[in-house]
């Protein structure tokens, strides 16, 4: 009788242990599957990807839920290879940034709470906010002139833009980042130095000095007409931005606005060269749809025209879309490989995408 009891007890504990081991295996496998699904979702489903063909070129379109990604701009003092940025920061997607020439940033970029460079306003710009949402609109600046003299209080004068073509706008401030000569046809031409001193210019061609400005104003500005040599002019250029802004980056032209193809009109407004407008080019850009999803798109070699690209994006349902730098600056890295451009392509600025 005692042996039977011992045997039954052993059998009971064996079954209990086997049940425990079986349950442990089930929990382990369930946890393993959960980890795989979690990893897969956060690394493979941070975006959806589609590929199309335009003019024998590949159009890659990546769509992001803004809650699932974080976009961080990258800026360097000199052109740096795309592969070096990828290896150091390990983003799951990398795209080239705004315009540059040699070691100088030409496009507008705002990051770390201040403008890193200026560009003429009314340029297509991608605005990214601290809550991970984004918008695309035209960049606008406010130029403030603080004009002081020893005989009276300081007077403040606001101008409506910078780096605008003088044959189209009045009240223009050319910064030292604008390398083309100023060729005024009328108005007041003033060179403003970094220390606030100034001089009237009477030449038809002038270039801003380092840290200085060239101001072209119309004749209605009595304050500027009646300056004396002891006056000083302090200049500040302020982008008109939202307090919730994280960064902005300009490009152009605007391809879609309110869901409409405006590539040709905006090319004229933003003074895009004809060969860029109608020629086949590799291109990269950003977009947004009505549900606030963020898009990155890029066209591989041999490229396409602006109108062809805008038509394709319009059919995909984007609401706003704009170009970044393009041509041989085009870089798109995703899915652990370079889809457009090469790893040796070097730019000054990039946009890096990370899972949030």
UniProtKB/TrEMBL annotation:
PANTHER family: N-ACETYLGLUCOSAMINE-1-PHOSPHODIESTER ALPHA-N-ACETYLGLUCOSAMINIDASE. The keyword tRNA processing does not apply. The chain crosses the membrane at residues 20-40. The keyword Lyase does not apply. It comes from Thermodesulfobium acidiphilum. Keywords: Membrane, Transmembrane, Transmembrane helix. InterPro entries: NAGPA (IPR018711). Residues 213-338 form the Phosphodiester glycosidase domain. This is Phosphodiester glycosidase domain-containing protein.
């Amino acid at each position: 009788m005692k042996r039977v009891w011992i045997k039954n007890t052993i059998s009971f504990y064996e079954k209990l242990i086997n049940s425990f081991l079986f349950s442990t295996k089930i929990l382990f496998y369930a946890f393993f599957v959960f980890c795989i699904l979690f990893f897969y979702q956060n690394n493979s489903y941070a975006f959806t990807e589609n590929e199309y063909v335009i003019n024998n070129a590949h159009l890659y379109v990546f769509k992001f839920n803004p809650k699932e990604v974080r976009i961080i701009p990258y800026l360097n003092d000199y052109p740096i290879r795309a592969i070096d940025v990828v290896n150091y920061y390990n983003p799951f997607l990398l795209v080239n940034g705004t315009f540059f020439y040699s070691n100088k940033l030409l496009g507008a970029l705002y990051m770390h709470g201040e403008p890193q460079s200026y560009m003429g306003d009314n340029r297509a710009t991608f605005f990214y906010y601290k809550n991970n949402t984004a918008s695309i609109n035209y960049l606008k600046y406010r130029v403030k002139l603080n004009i002081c003299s020893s005989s009276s209080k300081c007077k403040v004068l606001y101008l409506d833009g910078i780096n605008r073509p003088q044959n189209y706008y009045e009240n223009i401030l050319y910064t030292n980042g604008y390398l083309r000569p100023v060729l005024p046809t009328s108005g007041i031409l003033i060179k403003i130095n970094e220390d606030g001193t100034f001089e009237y210019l009477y030449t038809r061609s002038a270039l801003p000095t380092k840290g200085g400005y060239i101001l072209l104003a119309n004749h209605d500005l009595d304050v500027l007409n009646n300056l004396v040599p002891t006056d000083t002019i302090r200049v500040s250029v302020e982008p008109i931005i939202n307090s919730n802004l994280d960064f902005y980056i300009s490009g152009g032209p605007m391809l879609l606005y309110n869901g409409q193809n405006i590539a040709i009109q905006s090319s004229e407004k933003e003074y895009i060269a004809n060969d860029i407008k109608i020629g086949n080019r590799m291109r990269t850009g950003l977009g947004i749809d009505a549900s606030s999803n963020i898009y990155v798109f890029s066209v591989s070699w041999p490229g396409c025209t602006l109108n062809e690209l805008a038509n394709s994006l319009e059919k995909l349902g984007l609401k706003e879309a704009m170009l970044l730098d393009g041509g041989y600056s085009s870089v798109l890295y995703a899915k652990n490989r370079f889809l457009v451009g090469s790893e040796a392509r070097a730019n000054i600025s990039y946009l890096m995408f990370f899972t949030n």
